[in-house]
Amino acid sequence: MSACAGDKPLASLSGLLPDWLAALNRGRRHFDSDAAAMQLAVLAAERNIVEGGGPFGAVVLGPDGQLLAVAANRVLPARCSLWHAEMLAMALAQERIGSHDLGSVGPCSLYTTCAPCAMCFGAIPFAGLHRLVCAAATEDAEAVGFDEGAKPDNWVSALETRGIAVTLGVLAEQGRALLQSYQRAAGAIY
After folding, report:
1. Which of 71, 98, 151, 152 could pair with 118 in a Cys bridge, judged by C-beta atoms 3.0 to 4.6 Å apart?
2. Going residue by residue through the chain (190 aa), what tens digit of pLDDT does each one get?
3. Does the domain at residues 14-183 carry the CATH identifier 3.40.140.10?
4. Are 181 and 187 in contact (CB under 8 A)?
5. Could you tell me the CA-to-CA distances from 11 to 21, 39, 78, 88, 140 in Å, in that order?
6. Rounded to an integer, what distance in angstroms lies between the CA atom of residue 76 and that of residue 50?
7. How far is the C-alpha of 188 from the C-alpha of 62, rounded, in Å?
8. 11-17 — which CB contacts under 8 Å span 24+ positions?
9. What is the model's pLDDT at position 14?
């Protein structure tokens, strides 16, 4: 047996979440403002830092503002480079609706405590999202040492050209504070 062929059975994505994050995903909640949805993403990121994860949180809302998923960056705890907050939130939301296309249930929005890195930027159109809302800017993540990858300078226009509305700076100060807090705590930069 190769070193890569573990003996752990595959589980649903929700089975990979720590209890505190699974609890945030339970129940039916609706959000009526960008600030309220972003506040949940901030809350997830704050708790994630305490629990040994990265300083990023994300929320996916479905039509009419219903919560489809909340996630935090689980790269370090899961030892998986794919589990950025946005990627995990999109995957959890897709699992919840039973489709790879979030747009199949109507317009869905992604809220993230920081503008997406190159990987997350690339995944947004393929997930079927209609809207992206960001707190901190790419430059804020880079200022504390994160490498955001080869994302085009005109990334907002690139998404808008594909029919995805982009709103920047919602709770930006709180998004920056997460990054700065993580840096002060000497969190791993990856």
Report:
1. 151
2. 334 344 444 456 766 799 999 999 998 899 999 999 999 999 999 999 999 999 999 999 999 999 999 999 999 999 999 999 999 999 999 999 999 999 999 999 999 999 999 999 999 999 999 999 999 999 999 999 999 999 999 999 999 999 999 999 999 999 999 999 999 999 999 8
3. yes
4. no
5. 16, 29, 14, 14, 35
6. 13
7. 33
8. 12/95, 13/88, 13/91, 13/92, 13/95, 14/92, 14/95, 16/74, 16/78, 17/74
9. 64
Neighbours of 122 (CB within 10 A): 13
Bridge partners (DSSP) listed for residue 125: none
Q: Which two tokens stand for residue 62?
A: 């479905």
Boundaries of every domain in the chain: 14-183
Helix (H, G, I), strand (E, B) or coil at 170: coil
